[in-house]
Automatic annotation (TrEMBL):
Similarity comment: Belongs to the EPSP synthase family.
GO CC annotations on file: cytoplasm
Coiled-coil region(s): none
EC number(s) reported in the record: 2.5.1.19
PROSITE patterns associated with the record: EPSP_SYNTHASE_1, EPSP_SYNTHASE_2
Protein name as annotated: 3-phosphoshikimate 1-carboxyvinyltransferase
Organism in which the protein naturally occurs: Pseudosulfitobacter pseudonitzschiae
Residues the record lists as binding phosphoenolpyruvate: K28, G101, R129, Q176, R358, R403
Length: 450
């Protein structure tokens, strides 16, 4: 990816109707967790549909460094021979998690209660992100850490030799923090309790149960109280990774704003903790339907059908929905630019500490393309210009952030003039087939500023 190479400038320009079927790649969150839980299990975990984006490949490499045997069989089919809970070896090299906050935070958690040390680093984006949100709760288990000022990477974690179980109220809505504490709790004796006041994606809880851990979730006045019994023997599983709703967001949103489009995005998980964008788009008047609704692996799944929606209207996005669509706000802000009226997005402080400050990155780029954006510490508002009226014409900085790059390329599909990004390289972290997939639907994305 380009954080380790030359920037890849890309340009997107208005195109004819987007049509056809978009088979988006596997879910990034579930892909990381499949490799990590496979590495902590006994026996051979087999995985199909793994997202082979750079973030996940970095996690695969890290699991090998901790002693698991991880094999790529081609075509998204992988296997992991795990070392069992508490069986991690000490890596003899620095663990480079690239661009991935999920990778580094979950891996810190899963090694934090073993008597080993590991040093973590990443690219310029990851090395600027806050890690104290994970190392603070890990310290309660007896884990030590030393990093750069502000709790930033590179950072060494010294695992607790005699961990104690913890009870922790997660202070920010973060599935990564929740998951790091649960993974650390696996190798602590007794019951580790994690409480979240706002529900975040629950893949870790669901998958831990699937791998045989004793884990319960109770909804109480305090919030979601998750109780994990430590030191289980996790049993190897077969995981068929569902397709990623966060990647589906891009072809869906593009179809809504490009005239005459009609795109089918099959097999998308509609887990309530992930599907907030689709609810929001429908409230804005999007022609977005769920076809062939069914259950797969205990999760609601549907084929999404998105058609051009000329009469989108700006709305108030409920703050309590933020966690269920946290990665989708950048592309939502693009759709909001083509709506009539204002779209107000409150309760989104976490957007400031993602791969980039996503409010700032989108505000600067949208404004350069003729759209008015107002913002505060935890909210932003986009004033839509209506279909056909968005000027475009600017080059936007992607700030080593895949979702910022893809959002601006979607913008350029329906603006009066083309929209460029300075670097599309980071797209490979989560959606390596973005260009051919969007091109196959009819999008006009080129690799130059021309
Ligand atoms: C993720 C959690 C979210 C999300 C990220 C993936 C996960 O981060 O933004 O892309 O897989 O747990 P936070 O936990 O920081 O909200």
């Amino acid at each position: 990816m380009s954080s380790h190479g030359a920037p890849i400038p890309m340009t997107s320009r208005a195109c004819g109707a987007l049509t056809g079927t978009a088979q988006v790649p596997g879910d990034k969150s579930i892909s990381h967790r499949s490799l990590i839980l496979g590495a902590m299990s006994v026996g051979e975990t087999t995985i199909t549909g793994l997202l082979e984006g750079q973030d996940v490949l970095d996690t695969a490499r890290a699991m090998r460094a901790f002693g698991a045997e991880v094999t790529d069989h081609g075509g998204g089919s992988w296997s992991v021979y795990g070392v069992g809970v508490g069986g991690f070896a000490e890596p003899d090299q620095v663990i480079d998690c690239g661009n991935s906050g999920t990778g580094v935070r979950l891996i810190m958690g899963c090694m934090a209660t073993s008597p080993i040390s590991a040093t973590f680093t990443g690219d310029a984006s990851l090395n600027g992100r806050p890690m104290a949100r994970v190392t603070d709760p890990l310290a309660l288990f007896g884990t030590q850490s030393v990093g750069r000022s502000g709790g930033r990477l590179p950072m060494t974690i010294v695992g607790a030799a005699e961990p104690v179980p913890v009870r922790y109220v997660v202070p920010v809505p973060s599935a990564q923090v929740k998951s790091a504490v649960l993974l650390a709790g696996l190798n602590a004796p007794g019951k580790t309790v994690v409480i979240e006041t706002e529900a975040t994606r629950d893949h870790t809880e669901r998958m831990l149960a699937g791998f045989g851990a004793e884990i319960t979730t109770e909804i109480t006045d305090e919030g979601r109280v998750i109780t994990l019994t430590g030191q289980p023997e996790l049993k190897a599983q077969h995981i068929d990774v569902p397709r990623d709703p966060s990647s589906a967001a891009f072809p869906v949103c593009a179809a809504l704003i490009v005239p005459s489009s009609d795109v089918l995005v099959p097999n998308i998980g509609l887990n309530q903790t992930r599907a907030g964008l689709f609810t929001t788009l429908r409230e804005m008047g999007a022609d977005l339907t769920y076809e062939n609704e069914r259950e797969e692996g205990g999760e609601p799944v549907a084929d999404l059908r998105a058609r051009f929606s000329p009469d989108l209207k700006g709305i108030e996005v409920p703050a309590e929905r933020a966690a269920s669509m946290i990665d989708e706000y950048p592309v939502l802000s693009v759709v909001a630019a083509f709506a009539s009226g204002k779209t107000h997005m409150p309760g989104v402080k976490e957007l400031r500490v993602k791969e980039s400050d996503r409010i700032d990155a989108m505000k600067v780029g949208l404004e350069a393309n003729g759209i008015t954006v107002e913002d505060g510490p935890d909210w932003w508002t986009v004033t839509g210009l209506g279909h056909g009226n968005v000027p475009g014409g600017a080059t936007c900085a992607s700030h080593l952030d895949h979702r910022i790059a893809m959002s601006f390329l979607v913008l350029g599909m329906a603006t009066q003039r083309p929209v460029s990004v300075d670097d599309g390289g980071p797209i490979a972290t989560s959606f390596p087939i973005f260009e051919p997939l969007m091109g196959g639907l009819g999008a006009a994305i080129t690799r130059s500023n021309g």
